[in-house]
Specification:
alpha+beta; Sortase, Chain: A; eight-stranded mixed barrel; hydrolase; hydrolase activity; Sortase; Sortase_D
């Protein structure tokens, strides 16, 4: 009887590992597909006024030079959106809208190693209406239920990256890691 129970636990363990592996492969494929779409979007020409993304749409890229990462940005921050890449919180702004821009991502996928970023590092958002560079100025850790992070900063533009914390926590993390960055300059177009 003990042998059968042991074999059952081993089989269950293999099944769990196989499911986790399949889910990881699917998420990686979804992110690669989203990045291909993002590259096409970034190279299309639109004026800022005609930029009206819908939930789930790939809208551009977030480049993190210090990590050598280029990530797709998806409109929305639902679990399905975050499987494709970095989620744009729909109630927040986009570059040149002179308000807070909020981007979220999973700590174990798109925002792996985000904790190694430091003040002065650069973040670049590329959209169909331009490229926008931001410099990281500060970081902080807040409770997972702290909603004060997301708020209007008008007329000041502020880029906020959010992810779960601690980074190596197993399960639903109790905190959030927040990065604040501010515009350097924009390239390609004046945003009109």
């Amino acid at each position: 009887m003990i042998k059968k129970i042991s074999l059952l636990f081993i089989a269950g363990g293999f099944l769990f590992i196989a499911c986790a592996g399949w889910q990881k492969l699917k998420m990686d494929a979804d992110q690669k597909d989203a990045l291909r779409k993002a590259e096409k979007v970034v190279h299309s020409e639109h004026k800022q006024g005609s930029f009206h993304p819908v939930r789930g749409e790939v809208v551009g890229t977030l480049e993190i030079p210090a990590l050598k990462r280029k990530l797709p940005i998806v409109e929305g921050a639902s679990p399905e959106d975050l499987e494709k890449g970095v989620g744009h919180y729909s109630a927040s702004a986009y570059p040149k809208q002179h308000n807070q821009i909020v981007l979220s991502g999973h700590r174990d996928t798109v925002f792996r190693q985000i904790g190694t970023l430091k003040k002065g590092d650069q973040l670049i958002i590329r959209l169909s209406y331009g490229s926008f560079s931001y410099t990281i100025r500060r970081m902080k850790i807040v409770d997972k239920d702290d909603r004060s992070v997301i708020h209007s900063t008008a007329p000041t533009e502020e880029l906020v990256l959010t992810t779960c914390y601690p980074f190596r926590y197993v399960g639903n993390a109790p905190k959030r890691y927040i990065i604040y960055a501010y515009p350097e300059h924009s390239q390609r177009g004046d945003g009109k």
